[in-house]
Amino acid sequence: MNTMSDLPTNTAHAAADPLVLYGQTFASRLMLGTSRYPSPQVLEDAVRRARPAMLTASLRRQGASNADAGNAFWKLLQTLGVPVLPNTAGCHGIQEVITTAQMAREVFGTPWLKLELIGDDYTLQPDTLKLVEAAEWLIKDGFQVLPYCTEDLVLCQRLVDVGCQAVMPWAAPIGTGRGPVNPYAMQLLRERLGVPMIVDAGLGRPSHACQVMEWGYDGVLLNTAVALAQDPVGMAGAFADAVQAGRSAYRCGAMSEQQAAQPSTPVLGTPFWHHE
Q1: For labelling alongside 228, which of 214, 222, 255, 262 has CA 20 to 30 A away?
Q2: What is the pLDDT of residue 162?
């Protein structure tokens, strides 16, 4: 697998404002999932168009009964030259998470991990009661953990307290594409926590990504919004552009909202006409 330092720079602007996670620098603030694409070729083209910081992949996605397809998938990831972020998708218990994480570290040769610990199969909401314990154990075992969590402020603070140097709150349940369903909580979370935060799950449109980036979030992770678009390759590019635009807007500082209309055309020097 390629190392994190092998990642190409997207643009000069991105390189001047890199994303930093666990001391590692990334040129892009977009991460992509690798499932549900129409074909491996579409996945490859989408990745090359978006040039993301990392690609998420689940060790459980390819079963032993489909070894040839699994090998082809791993070879494709290597060909793309983008660092892989293994995840523990589908895990429902702490021991299951630990076992999957250790296997992923051996297979991919990386301590990076997206921690998923599902508590509800309908919404795929993270198990908020067990997530902190799982994260703490993995961090002590040497993993660089990016936990998928809700926008709950207390939960995210506890994850930081046990050593997570970044958190990944959802905007909405996985795969819904609804965008931020709780803007107040997400903006409050961004204001209160000083660690990098990646919005993971629930974004459906580039405008959603731009919005959370304007709020000050440090990046977004997407899968369904790109993979199930009518044109996944074009949509990957649209999201990449939206993420960069939102980040630029955040850094520039948006104007304050006003209650009443404010004239934008200067009146200095305008002729005054006197009517008899």
Answers
A1: 214
A2: 97
Residue 184: which residues within 8 A CB-CB, separation 6 or more? none
- In this structure, the number of other CB atoms found within 10 A of the CB of residue 242 comes to 21
DSSP letter for each residue of 106-141: HHH---EEEE--BS-TTT--B-TTTHHHHHHHHHHT
- Please, is 140 exposed, middle or buried when counting C-beta atoms within 10 Å of its C-beta (0-12, 13-18, 19+)? exposed
**Token duo for residue 131:** 């997530």
The answer to whether 225 and 239 have CB atoms below 8 angstroms apart is: yes
Q: What is the mean pLDDT of residues 53-77?
A: 73
Distances (CA, A) of 77 to 62, 108, 128: 14, 11, 31
- Cα(94)–Cα(125) distance, rounded to whole angstroms? 15
Could you give the C-alpha distances from 95 to 3, 101, 118, 147, 150, in angstroms and in order? 28, 10, 13, 16, 21
Q: Element (H or E) spanning 239, and its range?
A: helix 232-252
Is residue 236's pLDDT more than 50? yes
Residue 162 is classified by DSSP as T
CATH number for the 4-252 domain, one of 3.20.20.70, 2.40.50.140, 3.30.460.10, 3.40.640.10?
3.20.20.70
Tokens representing 216 are: 């000050």
Split at pLDDT 50, 70, 90, the class of 64 is very low
User: Hey, which residues are catalytic here?
Assistant: 114
Q: What is the pLDDT of residues 73-108, one digit of tens each?
A: 888 888 888 999 999 998 999 999 999 999 999 988
